[in-house]
Amino acid sequence: MNELLNYNYETESKKIKINPMLRLTAIMLTAAFIFVMLPMIAHAAPSASGKATDTVTLRKSASTSSASLGKVYKNSKVTITAEVFTSKKSTSNRWYAVKVGSKKGYIKVGRVKNIKYNTVKATTTDALNYRKGAGTSMGKVGCAPVGTQVTVYLPAKAKGSSDLWYKVKVKNKTAYMIGDYLDLKTAASIKRNKSIAAKLLAKPTAGGKERIVYTLDSSNCARKMRVTGYAKGMVPQGMAFTGKTYHILFGMGDGQSIVSYSAGGKRVKAVRFPYNMGKPNAMTYNPNTGLCYIMKGAQTKIYTWSPSTGKFGTSKTPYSSSGLSYDRSTDKIYATSLSGVRVYSADGKFSHKKFFNKCSHSGRSYVQDCGAYGGFIFHAMSSGNKFGKNYLDVYRASDGKYLGSLAVYLGELESVVVNNEGFVELLVNHGGTYNEYIWKTPLNVKDLK
Prior knowledge:
Layout: H1 2-9, H2 20-27, H3 33-41, E1 48-52, E2 56-59, E3 68-72, E4 77-85, E5 94-100, E6 103-108, E7 112-117, E8 120-124, E9 128-131, E10 140-144, E11 149-157, E12 164-170, E13 173-178, E14 182-183, H4 194-202, E15 212-216, E16 222-226, E17 235-241, E18 245-251, E19 257-262, E20 267-272, E21 280-286, E22 291-296, E23 299-305, E24 312-321, E25 323-327, E26 332-336, E27 340-345, E28 352-357, E29 365-373, E30 376-383, E31 390-396, E32 401-408, E33 412-418, E34 423-429, E35 437-444
Parallel strand pairs: 4-11, 15-32
Antiparallel strand pairs: 1-4, 1-7, 2-3, 4-5, 5-6, 8-11, 8-14, 9-10, 11-12, 12-13, 16-35, 17-18, 18-19, 19-20, 21-22, 22-23, 23-24, 25-26, 26-27, 27-28, 29-30, 30-31, 31-32, 33-34, 34-35
């Protein structure tokens, strides 16, 4: 991991890992890129607003020798769409690409006052330098590890380059980052895709072979929050959601931990798990008992943990399973295993209510944790290539029917929850590399009704 980080810190211009869509955008950035591309990047990169400091000339391009497009009078409203650098090494000669009324042009930086930014959040997708200006020749301010959260102010244009850069705030410093390694898609930007539910509901079956109806990847999902373990437990294995707090179970090796996050992604608690489970698998929270239930794969023994008191204990289920999930809308607990799905009471006694067969996958697969809400069960499955194609199997609890599967290309799929808005969210494992995330998907359980 350290070799990768140390190498990529210095390789901004080598484009080792490039988002194809961002690369396409960058190639299209010419001298006139600002106004050609604004409609395409406006959804991701914000603009800013301000007022002219005095009467200034609106230029056709970022140069004092460029043709005049007219005057912008003092205190006139100016919309800033990008920042343009006209030197490869100096930050002193910069321009704003602006819109004034119906006119588009350029005004020198320093001639706009009372600037207010409409910022968005972004995440670094690789280790990344941040610099004093747009361009790899600009002085380096620092290095941001993969998964660093930054605030994006404006798109930026580097002199002599077609690359898309951004003006950002990172670690309380204003700097510039190349756009190839910034993911500006936020969880708030993910919208419901009703066609996924329609495809799932089209052909319910009693188990049978897998039926892939949709693919989830970084193009249609967004990182909601980055999660990290505690002590020796660093690999995410299971997840529970109380409606307010995410409890993440970390494990592998001889260390396990539970780390709690607010819905906004703030770490609020971290505890060492006192039992050596090796590789824990399932986790859910039951508000009836106030306990989180934790289970290792294919076992009946359950460990319990109270988020309020911090106390640990044990319990058991009548049948072995690998996944556990409390459905807070139906007040039932669902357990998933190699053989199928079981329905239990949620009174802490795990009284068995129902069993139905699960679907079968081609090739080798591993059963993981599950999530449930609204009478639908979402079973996480990883394939033989755990960091390649994974599966999210969907079942309807009322009649035990298998509705279909979603292919998941986000990493090893470990656990599933449904947030308060009804969106399905996934816990993804990259092997304890500090690149562990909860992803928000466009699938919403409200569309499965």
